[in-house]
Amino acid sequence: MKTKLMAAMLLFILSSAGFCEDKLNNSTQVTFVELGTKNCAPCKMMQPVMADIEREYKNRVKVIFYDVWSREGNPYAKVYKIQVIPTQIFLDKNGKEFFRHIGFFPKEEIVKVLDGQGIKKIITEKKSSSKNISSEN
After folding, report:
1. Assigned domain for 85 exists
2. Range of the domain at 89
3. N or C: which end of the chain has fewer CB within 10 A?
4. Is 60 part of any domain?
5. Cα dist. 18→40, 64, 113 in Å?
6. pLDDT at res. 122
7. Which three-class secondary structure state does DSSP give residue 14?
8. pTM of this prediction?
9. Is-contact 1 33, C-beta < 8 A?
10. What is d(CA 101, CA 104) in angstroms, rounded to the nearest whole number?
């Protein structure tokens, strides 16, 4: 009985995460799952990294964030068996985990993981201009 319940829960979670065939974009090659919260410092530092990956890899990499401290996101912490936040999990196009990282994960290192899977950027990064930009304190 417990096994059937866990299987049903996993199927529900994977379905809502976008693994149903009707929701999965055919060009998606990797799903990057970020498990964290909106309140921890390393989790906040991951937000712009995730946005960059999503923008630069367009439909090739699907980025999903679960706030595991929320009621909606908490079940994913159990499904993915995380112990520390943030945790990044990379799934292939069949939903099979091929890489996991714990803690802040710099963009350059994520790019290496994606390159290792043969996934290339669609949009290249903008070169910074030589103008000095002042910041307000």
Report:
1. yes
2. 26-116
3. C
4. yes
5. 26, 9, 21
6. 87
7. helix
8. 0.73
9. no
10. 8
Q: Which of 38, 43, 31 is nearest to 105 (CA)?
A: 43
**CA 52 to CA 56: how far, in whole Å?**
6
How many domains, the chain? 1
Structure tokens at 19: 């693994």
The answer to whether the bond into 48 is cis (omega within 30° of 0) is no
CATH no. for residue 47? Answer: 3.40.30.10
Instruction: Give the per-residue pLDDT at 129.
Output: 40
The whole-angstrom separation of Cα 100 and Cα 85 is 12
Q: List C-alpha distances in Å: 35 to 116, 119, 122.
A: 22, 22, 25
* Domain presence at residue 62: yes
Nearest to 80 by CA among 61, 50, 53, 100: 100
Neighbours of 76 (CB within 10 A): 21
Q: Residue 111: pLDDT above 80?
A: yes
In-domain check, residue 57: yes
Task: Answer whether 18's CB lies under 8 Å from 31's CB.
Answer: yes
Q: Which helix (H) or strand (E) holds 45?
A: helix 41-57
